[in-house]
Amino acid sequence: MARKARKFIIAPGAVYHIVCRGINKKCIFWGVQDYKKFLRILTETKKKFGFFVYTYNLLPNHFHLLMEMQKIPISKVMHDINFYYAVYFKRRCKRVGHLFQDRFYSSLIDTESYFWKVAGYIDLNALRAKLVERPEDYPWSSYQFYAKKDYSGELIDRERFLRYGGDGPIEELRQDYLKFVEEEAKNPKRPKYITDKFV
Fold first, then answer.
1. How far apart are CA 2 and CA 86, in angstroms?
2. What is the pTM of this model?
3. In sequence order, what are the beta bridge partners of 100?
4. Spatial CB neighbours of 29, under 8 Å, sequence gap ≥ 6
5. Is residue 63 within 8 Å of residue 123, measured between CB atoms?
6. 8 Å CB contact between 185 and 124
């Protein structure tokens, strides 16, 4: 039976929390080169389609993204990211069949009050999975780029993200976000909209 097409808001400014996991909870990243390859694909797709990336966290068997769409719908963006990564991974690991469980999960972030909550939840994933003792120590998360005073990379739209927190000096906004994540790390409760499919 054909899958039902999902409805997405295509208007510029639609922000999504995306989760993709390996089929049967299998690993989708086996080593450093896999994480690097995925981030290259994400960066290249961003250049091609012109969306914004605010946070990400790549765990061994799933990943989280917080992205703001522009002209291209999220379904097309995620199709390209997952397709090119799956082709690479299955070729490298000599696997056949599906790599990902379903296509992806998505939640529209349509209130400002959830925006930093979701970002903090994503940035704390490796910590809560007990992969590191501090979120900034995990190399496959965007949090390391917020923890540093200076950032000149092309993947994370750091200043745009921080501006969601107010109109003050950017360094003050960065410190505000670090404090926010630090406080969130002490809170065992998930954001209200986070269900088991996002864990």
1. 21
2. 0.88
3. 22
4. 35, 38, 58, 59, 60, 61, 140
5. no
6. yes
Are 100 and 28 spatial neighbours (Cβ–Cβ below 8 Å)? yes
CA 188/CA 199 separation, integer angstroms:
13
What are the structural domains of the chain? 15-191 (3.30.70.1290)
Is residue 67 within 8 Å of residue 35, measured between CB atoms? no
What tokens does 184 get? 């969130």
Could you give the angle at which helices 32-49 and 74-93 cross, rounded to 10 degrees? Answer: 150
Could you read off the pLDDT of 122-171 as tens digits, one per residue?
999 999 999 999 999 999 999 999 999 999 889 999 999 998 888 889 99
Cα(114)–Cα(109) distance, integer angstroms: 7
CA pair distance 42, 29, nearest whole angstrom: 15
Q: Rounded to whole angstroms, how far apart are CA atoms 135 and 125?
A: 8
